[in-house]
Amino acid sequence: MAATGKTARGGKQGGTTGGAIPAKPVKPDPAIRQMLHVLIDRLHPDDEPAVRRVLERMVEAGAGEFDDEPLTPEEQAASEGGWQEYRRGEARPLDEVLRDIARK
């Protein structure tokens, strides 16, 4: 079972300012955890702050929780626009996006 973004106590955990380590999620998948550790170990040191910020923001937002609400027409249009950009070859590499996030 994949992590849900919830803590063992059922609440959401986060906070990029205190440096606090979030509580463990309920029933983490060991294989996924292992792969995440492998990927983190392979990061270039310059990318570590950006990846940390991305992960912290995901935890703060409750990433991994299932959103069962239908997309609004605006969200659907934005999604389709993104896919069209991707199909035209206008997608940006993840490392470039992470570097941009780190600069903010």
Features:
single chain; 104 residues; mainly alpha; 4 helices; disordered N terminus
Draw up the topology in text.
Elements: H1 30-41, H2 48-60, H3 73-87, H4 94-103
What do these coordinates show?
The chain has 104 residues and is mostly helical. It has one domain. Helix 2 crosses helix 4. The longest helix has 15 residues. The N terminus is likely disordered.
How many distinct domains? 1
Radius of gyration: 16 Å
Number of strands: 0
Q: Tell me what portion of residues adopts beta-strand conformation.
A: under 5%
Fraction of residues in H or I helices: 40-55%
Q: What is the count of DSSP helices, taking H or I runs of 4+ residues? A: 4
In a nutshell, what does this entry contain?
This protein has 104 residues and is an all-alpha fold.
